[in-house]
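Researcher: Next entry: MBOAT family protein (Pedobacter psychroterrae).
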Amino acid sequence: MVFNSVEFAVFFTGFFLLYWFVFNRYLKQQNLLILIGSYVFYAWWDWRFLLLLAASTAFNYYLGIHIKKAETFTRRRFLLYLGLLQALGTLLYFKYFNFFIESFTRGFSAFDLNIDVHLVNIILPLGISFYTFRTVSYIIDIYNGKTQPTTNWVIFFAYVAFFPTLISGPIDRVGLLIPQFETKRVFNYENAVDGMRQILWGFFKKMVVANNCALIANPVFDRYHDLPASTLVLGAFFYTIQIYADFSGYTDMATGFSRLLGFNITKNFNYPFFARNIADYWRRWHMSLTSWVTDYVFLPLTIRFRDYGKIGLVMAIMINLIVVGIWHGANWTFILYGVLHGLYFIPLIIKGTMNKKKKAGIASSFQSFSELKNILLTFLLVMFTNVVFRARNITEAFNYYMSLFSKTIIAKPVLATDATIVITTIVCIVVMLSIEWIHREKSYGFQIGYFKKPVLRWALYLVLITSIFCFSPAEGSQFIYFQF
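Model: Predicted structure:
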């Protein structure tokens, strides 16, 4: 069951009516309904993994209570390590077990030592990276005294499994979401309308922009050996737009559905393609993951490496970005992806400009040519590195780069996709980026509630809805971040 499906439309409509018209007077019943609805939503994909989700949630629920009750530092630390072992052990098994086996056997084969080890047929549970990081931050924050354990099991179970964000985030912290579960929620018409507007924007980004970009990018990556470098540049460009429109579109939908239920979740994107440098980009891209890794990996590392000056800061950044890369999956390409992004930070660290935040100008045009140049250079760096992110293995990424840097860079591009689709997609990309640039000071790109004339708003709604029905590919692609 995905957001852009008929099944979800039926599910959410029924859930919404029960939530606000049947159980609206009783907070406990509303929270229980969220828990039941979230488990139904998750079971629609594969009911067998409900047990894993429930067991992990129950374990961390009781663990958080006992960490708080622990009378000695040794016991508290033991319970914390036990929780980390459970969380990381689960991730290592489901997400990385076969990767370690393959790497192990390949390492021995390099020395002509062949080891006959069979891989295990493991299905990756949907959303495991997201809900695991939620529970890990929960027990760490209790251990560090930053939050109190939740004694209401319904609230905690609903927090971990909250269905708008369960599959692909954002990774909400306990301090943001649980207080909202504990407070009576009142339906707010203006907030609900704006939430529906954000859902519509998310649908447009995913179903029109991302899915059409996939139609163009996928054939390029599948046949990169036979295509000129100019086409490979376009493939990397359309994939970069695809992954942004796909993931941020999902986040817009998740945010909108959460707002319809009276919740405000973590902001996950802040117009990353308008970033002035790579540090600015990571402050804007997948913000919930970036802040999570910053708080629980980067900051402890900076304390440990503080005696090494800028070299220590480089080491902390590299480890931090490698963790971000590995989080995405069990492949050396994701590790290389993290390494490359870590290397991009080095000039900023040397110049001492890594933490300098330059706010985008509020004028309708760029403040200077330098600003435009920095935005384009940052985008090109991201686009270049996304080749590694998209590649199936290191060899494929290397070969793509080798083909990319050739004399055929000036040749006429050869795209397998119909020209009409390509032109339509480019127009939709321009529309998406233009609207987001105009509204870059807003919380999301299509926040047009301030328009005084309803006719203008409804005209824009009609344009987006028509685009969704007319330009969405018949066979849409799955959300990219479902695989993580």
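Model: Note for the record: The mean pLDDT is 90.
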